[in-house]
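Milestone 3.1: sequence recovery, worked example.
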């Protein structure tokens, strides 16, 4: 059974940094794509970043490009380094996994974590 467990959220002032982690288990992810999405209160879930587990290709939403970095290590953990945070980055952040490269920026992934809250104060 696939499990994705996020951690690292919290409260930070504008301009600060946070690093989110996603511990993935339950299968091998070599052919998968891992993504981060976020959902602010009253808004739809939106794409933040994704990477190809095997090839290392990365993809970003325009709103976070240059500020956020997605990466992974060899322990089945995916990270989202978030710098220069803004109040509009406040949301619940979700880790997700999909076996398809089609529609990476849409929330149609196969597996989801439970989410971690990020709050950026002004």
């Amino acid at each position: 059974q696939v499990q994705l467990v996020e951690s690292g959220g919290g409260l930070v002032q504008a301009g600060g940094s946070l690093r989110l982690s996603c511990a993935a288990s339950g299968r091998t992810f070599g052919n998968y794509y891992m993504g981060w999405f976020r959902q602010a209160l009253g808004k739809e879930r939106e794409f933040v970043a994704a990477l190809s587990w095997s090839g290392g290709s990365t993809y970003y939403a325009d709103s976070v490009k240059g500020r956020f970095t997605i990466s992974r290590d060899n322990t089945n953990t995916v990270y989202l380094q978030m710098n220069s945070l803004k109040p509009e980055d406040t949301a619940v952040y979700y880790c997700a996994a999909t076996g398809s490269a089609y529609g990476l920026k849409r929330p149609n992934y196969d597996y989801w974590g439970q989410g971690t809250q990020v709050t950026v104060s002004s």
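The chain has a mean pLDDT of 95. The CA atoms of residues 3 and 45 lie 20 Å apart.
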